[in-house]
Prior knowledge:
The complex is a heterodimer. By secondary structure, chain A is an alpha/beta fold. Chain A has one domain (2-168): Rossmann fold. In chain A, 33% of the residues lie in helices and 29% in strands. Chain A contains 6 helices and 6 strands. Chain A has a 6-stranded mixed β-sheet, sandwiched between helices. The longest helix of chain A is centred in the C-terminal third of the chain and has 12 residues, at 157-168. Chain A starts with a strand and ends with a helix. By secondary structure, chain B is of the alpha+beta class. Chain B is built from 51 helices and 15 strands. In chain B, the strands form 4 sheets. A 5-stranded antiparallel β-sheet of chain B has the order 2-1-5-4-3. In chain B, helix 3 runs parallel beside helix 27, helix 17 (391-427) crosses helix 18 (429-438) and helix 29 (603-620) packs antiparallel against helix 30. The longest helix of chain B has 47 residues, at 281-327. Chain A: InterPro entries: P-loop_NTPase, Rab, Small_GTP-bd, Small_GTPase. Chain A: It comes from Spirulina subsalsa FACHB-351. Chain A: Keywords: GTP-binding, Nucleotide-binding. Chain A: This is GTP-binding protein. Chain B: Residues 1164-1283 form the OmpA-like domain.
Amino acid sequence: MSVVSKKICLLGDFCVGKTSLIRRFVDGQFSDQYLSTVGVKISRKVVLLPEGEHNVELLIWDIEGHTSFRNVARSYLQGAKAAIIVADVKRQDTILNVEKHLDLFFTVNPQGWILVAFNKSDLLNPSQLETLLMQYPFEQAQIVDTYITSAKTGEAVDEMFQCIAEKLA
Amino acid sequence: MASSKQNQGSAEAKLKRNGQNGGTPPTVPDPWNQDEAFDFWSDVGNREENFDQVPPSEQSTGSKFSGGHPAQDDKLAGVLEDLQELLSQKPSPSQTQPPPTMTEQDKARSLSPTLDLTQKIHKFQPGLDEDEVELPPSRISPESASPPEIASVAESVPPADSASPEPPIASAHPTTSPEAAKTPPPIDLAAIASFLSSRKGEKATTQQQDPVQSFTPDVTPSQPRGEGETLIAFPQKDEPDVKAENILPFQGKTPPREKVIPFQQKPPEEENLPSSEPETPTPETLVSPDLEPEQETLSPAEAASRLDTLLDAVFPLTEESPEDHPATPPPDPAREDQKEDRENQSSETVATSASPWANPFPTPPPPPPRKTVEEHKPSAPASQNGANSGARNGSRNGSDQNGRQKPTGTVRSGTKPFLRSQAKKKEDPLKSFRDLLLSPTPPPPPVEEEEDNLLDTPDLLLEASLEQLQGWAQERQATAAEREADLSPLVEDLEAELTPPMASVEEIEEITPPVRNREELTPPMAPVEEVEEITSPVGNREELTPPMAPVEEVEEITSPVGEQETVAEPPTVSHQEVVLEDELEPQIQTEPVPEQVMPPETISEVVSAPSEALDPPEMSSPSSPKAEEVVEAIQQQLERINQSDRQGDRKEELNEADFAQVRQLIGQLETKLSSLENQVYEPTEVINPLVPLMVQLLKMKVGVSQEAMTELLVPIIDDIIQQRVTQDQVAMSQALAQVLPLAIEQEIQRSPRAIARAIAPEIAAALQEQNKLERDAIPEALGPAMGRAIKAQIELERDAMVDALYPVVGNTISKYMGELVASINEKVDQTLSLSGVQRKIKARIQGVSEAELILQEASPVKVQAIFLIHKASGLVIAEMQPHGEQRLESNMIAGMLTAIRSFVNDCIAESGQIAELNEIEYGNSRIILEVAGYCYLAVAVEGNPSTAVVKHLRRTLGEITQKHGQLIEQYDGDRAGMPDSVTQALEQLEQKLQKSGQQKSPSALLTLLVILLIVVVLPWSYFQVRGFLDRRLESQIESALTDLENASYSQLTPTVNGKRVILSGRVPLEQVKADAEKMVAGINSNLEVDNQIIVVQIPPDPANVANTVAVVASLLNRSNNVNLTAGYQPGTVILRGNFNNPEDYKLIVESFDQIPGIETVNTAQLLPEFLRERVFFEMGSSRVPFGSLSNARVNQIRNFLAEYPEIGLRIIGHSDSAGPAQSNQELAMERAKNVQSVLLSQGLDPERLAINGTAEPPPEVETNDSADRSRVVRFELMPAPSASSLPAP
């Protein structure tokens, strides 16, 4: 079974848990220590697709949350077939900034797919999360879905990446 | 179908027309506008409806003529004939042409007819041709004057009728040959007379048939006769025809038509008879239905009188027609058959045709007669007369042609009419329009045919114009028909009842169609002429007027609008007149008409007619005056007729017979005239009916001769378009807009280069404009192609691209050059640097060749991995990793490299510059990055690959991007989608890299070695040679020195160094040393001799020395004055003694000193006599006894010291042994001191006097001796402390 490589990016404000999500997904680990990502960090994981002719090798570009280097981020986004935009459920500004990241990504990759991840779901109770989801619906043609994730508990992390992999297959 | 549309459109069109055209005739140009044309059509349609009613009038007139009043018909026919003749004169030439081929008639027509048409058209517009010029006045007159003319005609009509019928015939003749026109009249008169007679007889239903038959036979003869002959024959025929015509169709029109028919038939036979034949029959059939309404219109006035005749005519027609129809229905075959029949059975066919013709003619009679006349003419005259015979000729010819055309047209119309009117209308929308336009009058169907032809012809505009013209004519006809219909309600009944009315209708149709037919057929010239006449009412009127005048004033009145109208109207008038005049009149009319026609046609009449026409119009302006004028005109015509013999007779007859009827007719004429006037004054109404005809004409023209039309229109088209553009830019643009894309497309297909040339100059400007409008549009459009374009360009012409890109690539090139220079430097450094020397030493030490060391030093390039990476996404497109190595995470590496590249490009490189990350070094390895297009190559190598490696990289990358650029650009992560050739290219690259690392040549080192060898060996060998030479020289010198060996203590050795010779050795004598030097110089005087030979002396034997001392002492003692003893110790002689002579001291000392082996001579105790004697002291006393030291003694001492400055004097005091030693010592010292003081007092040098005291007795005094001897002071010689202190003497 052949493997097709796909580049995806994780976008989002700093300290929303992008790196943690990737680590949870790739290594199955989680650490409370905060290490700011500088520039970009690339991870790789092959996602097995239950159906289809090939598996997908996800090359996950963990792009630093400090977006002062817009241009850099822009060039990092080139060639990405999809992006996961991460927001911190505890920080409303990060949720509001999702739109900016959406625009940034779509300007670089008009045909790309987007997944929105509300991360750190373990910090809120389900009802709050529900209201959050209701409060910030992201409904565009190219936004596949919105996930409530937790890198700490692993909630919906694998599902999210699986979803994106299937979308790109 | 079409009719309804047309009607609808027509209504609107009418409105538009009214609005636009108003009363101005110039509206005519509007026909070009489709809208307007449609309007016209619509009008026509409306009118058609009216025309349906109206045409009947025409038809009725025709029918009337045909059946009712042959005489009137004849008259009218004469007028018509005149018109025809006038027309025919022009057409005649065309006629000649038409005959060539009936089927081809269209084509044939195209040439001459087209010319005529064009001329006429020109005439219509400006009146270009001379003929036209003549015509114009008449035209002008007809327009305005036509009504008055009509009036006058009306007045003269009765006679005119009688005369008119004749003239047509005559005209026919003249038309055949314009010149003959004058002559023909008589013939015509005769013929007319005969016709009249025949008609009188024919007036009955039978008459129609008879005429037809008569026509047929005439026709037949005409055919055999040939064209020229036919002329005459035709007139004759015409006469019978005229009769028939008079009976059947119109007054004079019918006869000419009949004549025409035969001619037509003949020509058709000759040319394409079939068409004419089928037409003729068909028209009949068609006419029959159409005729009914037409008859209705016609009938009202005339019907009553002519019903019978009409009926008769119709019946035969109908009878014949049905017969014909079956045959005709297939127009072509029928026509052909008919042709054949005509040819073979000319009489029969003619009869059949004649009958139909008779019918159709009635309505169109005017044209047909002309046609007939023309045809007659054309057959012969046409041939005789050149196409461009005199203007009049031309006109006549044209008329003839028209006549022919008409008949043919009629024939066709007859055949087609049904089909056309019904089916064809439906078929072609345009046709339908035209049909509608035409249909109002019957013509539409033929028009359709024409239209078809026109349609076939590309020029739509022309068609449109033609259609418009046709429409106008139809409208006119329609109006006339309407009027007639109004006038003749009875006709309707008749029409309804009788089939003949159908014929009339057919005729009407035919009239319009005839034009078409004419157009279609070669004879079309005639129709064209008619059309022209119609279009240019003036011209037509002129032409018509002359005939009209003879025939009927009504025609003139109507004529202004159009021939058909005029024809239709006149027929009615004529019919009316005929009705009044009855049988006699027709004959008279027929006869006189030709006569009149004949003369008028000759210029005078024509001119007069127009003049009349001119006058009348003014008169006619008021309807009532018009009527009066008409009456007057008729009277005038009558008068004219009267003037002519026949006419006069006939007129008289007519006048006598039915003046009342005439007046009634006149009244009707007046009404019609008034309407016509209205039409005239409302140019739109007049013009409108012409429009369809125009269209028809144009169509015909186009159909006949596209080239001619094009030639005609070409010079104007631009003006037309320009004017239209000025009028309504939007409409024009809209009209053209639809065609433009297609047109451009076509043109591009046809001649792309031309288009390119046309567009090229503005492309830049266009791009700029587009840029202004939408800045991104062009880049977006060109963007996708740019990459490929550049690639293609690179493949095509690499150098050009290099030049173009040089400024941009400058960085890269400079970098490349830098690398090159660096590599060169590196090589130089390596070969000449310390490392190189070290390597050499190392090689010597290890006993290994230097090249081997170099290979060892050149660290082998080991490729770890090669990645082809998608630039944007950082995904690996292809990779190559050597087997057996630890495989790298290609995608991770590629991703990070990509990120690093992006980071460098975006953050580190200066803004505005494109800088690439070329290499990443780590330890002894490095990652070389080469970027191209949408991908870049990353090569991880161990070692330091040479610049050649980088070259390989670039070349490989270039090849890959050129071959698979598109795939790479669209790479989406599926490596399987990439061709294997990419991976293979990477593998090849890897191999090249491996090899390239082992290519270092030791040549530089070898050269260095050589240099080193040379540098070392040369001096060495030099020194070797030189040493050899030196050795040889040394041996020579050595051998020479052997002579001195006996005299030397050791061997004398020479050392040669170049020219310098060093001699070494020991010799006992200086002499030997000098001899050795002399010997070297004796060998080579140039040699520089460094004589280092040492002279060595041997010590003497002590015994010998002692002997010698003894000998010397003895020898010295021999003298008296010397008494000494010599003691000898090795090297030293001690002398004791005394001598007398101080001078001997020197001798003694030297004697001993010269003895070999004696180095020092001690002379302390060798004293002269005066020092020998001691100074004795008293015991214990230190006082020098007086006398012991006499002055003499002192002097001697003094002289002695003075003589030997090197000698000092030591004064030694002694004491006796008595007493303490201490005191003795002191005493001794005291004593010496005193002596010294004495000596000093004598002036001796203190320094040379030393004192010494000892308690010891003097050496030779023994203890036993007297103490006296011990108390002394004695003297000893001592070396003087300094030679300087010599006492002065």
